[in-house]
Write a sequence for this structure.
């Protein structure tokens, strides 16, 4: 039966049978791989937020008037006297479906990667756990400035 307490052993099996770590060199490589996967997970979260906000910017503004002057311009008496200008074309539904498909694929990738990292931590190996924590901090540190540019 597997131990349910953290240990500092240099031998562990991570996620799959073929990822069987034996020795300190294998543990260092495995911690680096887990750290990089965690950094990618954090960057992926920010990328999804950026993609979502850019898709909101691409949408046309709502047709609801917000101030009284635009409310007056939309009244029937004034609008019947002014020439009708063509409205800008609506964004392509094909592009919106493509963007939604990309966002869905990124969501599935993020959730899958999150569960895989959780299972790595559940190996109860202290080095792997520290790799996930340091990778999360490093990924957040790297990707946080990107949120300011949105």
């Amino acid at each position: 039966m597997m131990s349910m307490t953290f240990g500092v052993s240099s031998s562990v099996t991570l996620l799959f049978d073929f990822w069987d770590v034996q020795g300190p060199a294998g543990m260092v490589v495995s911690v680096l791989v887990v750290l990089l996967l965690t950094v990618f997970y954090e960057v992926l979260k920010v990328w999804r937020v950026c993609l979502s906000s850019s898709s909101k910017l691409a949408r046309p503004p709502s047709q609801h008037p917000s101030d009284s002057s635009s409310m007056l311009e939309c009244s029937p008496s004034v609008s019947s006297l002014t020439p009708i200008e063509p409205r800008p074309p609506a964004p392509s539904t094909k592009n919106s479906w493509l963007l939604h498909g990309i966002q869905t694929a990124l969501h599935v990738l993020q959730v899958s990667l999150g569960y895989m990292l959780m299972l790595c931590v559940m190996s109860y190996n202290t080095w792997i756990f520290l790799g996930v924590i340091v990778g999360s901090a490093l990924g957040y540190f790297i990707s946080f400035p990107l949120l300011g540019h949105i």
User: Anything to note?
Assistant: Residues 24-58 form the longest helix (35 residues). The helical segments are 24-58, 68-73, 76-81, 93-121, 126-147.
